[in-house]
Amino acid sequence: MFGDQHVETSGGAQVSMRLQRRFLEKAGHTVTIVAPALHGARARQTAPDAAYLDIPSMPITLDREYALVWPGSRADRVIDDRMSRRPPVDIVHVQADFWGAFLGHRFARRHGLPVVHTMHNRVDVGIEATAPFPGLVLRVLNAWQRRALGGARGQTDRGRAGGRRAGGGAPAGRDGWAFLRTFARRSQAVTTPSAHFARRLEGHGAVPGGTVGARVDVVWNGIDDDLLDEVLRSTPDERAPGRPRFVWVGRMSPEKRLLPFLEAVAASGVDADVEVIGGGGQLAAARRLVARTRGAASVRFSGRLPYAETLRRIRAADAVVQTSIGFETQGMTIFEAAALGTPAVVSDPDLAGELGTGFWAVGGDVDAAPPASDASIGALAATVRAAAADISAGNAVQPSARVREEFRQSSRTASMIDVYRRVLGAA
């Protein structure tokens, strides 16, 4: 497996890869995870692990949490040398969008191996939310991708099996979908953790081999079966008395919309307990906003917590709040919450549609086609008020029982192994 970030850093994709590795090994498979080496406190706190192939990297955030690897010949040599001392590889599973993806596809091409590429992120939405001049950034990314992968503009219209290329003879493109299409055309299978993102990928031609009619496989990211059962066993089913308890979990960056949530909490006037779990660049701004608005709710910043403890906090909450819109391809936290029996306030109608039941929708109608969203502070405040009123009255919505069973990692790993077998059988 190739990732953009070490799996011991924070992030939904990293949590998912750690779980996939564990359950694949339980099923008798051998897994190597190739990712940037850790820095700072994370490096000191993480024990050596034979499954991790750490590539020399440079930190790219002030807290040294995340790192970059230049996807060139030096990194290729490090990977080839270290992989030569490990068991032979059958399949390359890329779970990255940038340097990890470049390195994974380069490795597969050098060694004639099939690729399964899991697309976790809406690259265009993420860059628009986090980068100045996003159009320029996307053009640079596409150029970097073509250079790193040896691709060229104006790829042919024919797939490997003679099928017509999705997107016809159009130039490679310079937007986020062009970036994902290039990876998809070099993959024997493309998977994603949600049906709504799978349909968007197919609509934009980001399908295996680039062949018209090819499908993107939907394989949810899951939750550790044993940890889920342990948290459920060790926590009460009955709600503890007290005012409504909301929890927000995630990276404190603009696309996650923590600051609008805190503004909405203040505007809602709810008498509630709000816990914010996570870290990132907007922490100081979030603290200032809470101090300035002085709403009726109490807001506690708990920082980054171990995964198991985060799940316990979610289980103890009356509702998880999901605030990003258009960015998440699955929204792990709301699925974790549903598996634990905790409902959610959901801003993104696509994610609400994946859950099915057990949420308070912010603003628009999730059954509309396409579903409507409302990013306003007022809509979020109104939904927080409605959720708090339902919780206080004992009428909280109930999460889907289907999610609790199908979100288990054992089920998800079995589905991914089916994808691997299909790809290997066709190779």
From TrEMBL:
Residues 241-354 form the Glycosyl transferase family domain. InterPro entries: Glyco_trans_1 (IPR001296), Glyco_trans_4-like_N (IPR028098), Glycosyltransferase_grp1 (IPR050194). SUPFAM superfamilies: UDP-Glycosyltransferase/glycogen phosphorylase. Gene3D superfamilies: Glycogen Phosphorylase B. One of its GO terms (biological process) is carbohydrate derivative biosynthetic process. Keywords: Glycosyltransferase, Transferase. GO terms for molecular function: glycosyltransferase activity. It comes from the Bacteria. Residues 11-226 form the Glycosyltransferase subfamily 4-like N-terminal domain. It holds the Pfam family Glyco_transf_4. Residues 151-173 are annotated as: Disordered. This is D-inositol 3-phosphate glycosyltransferase.
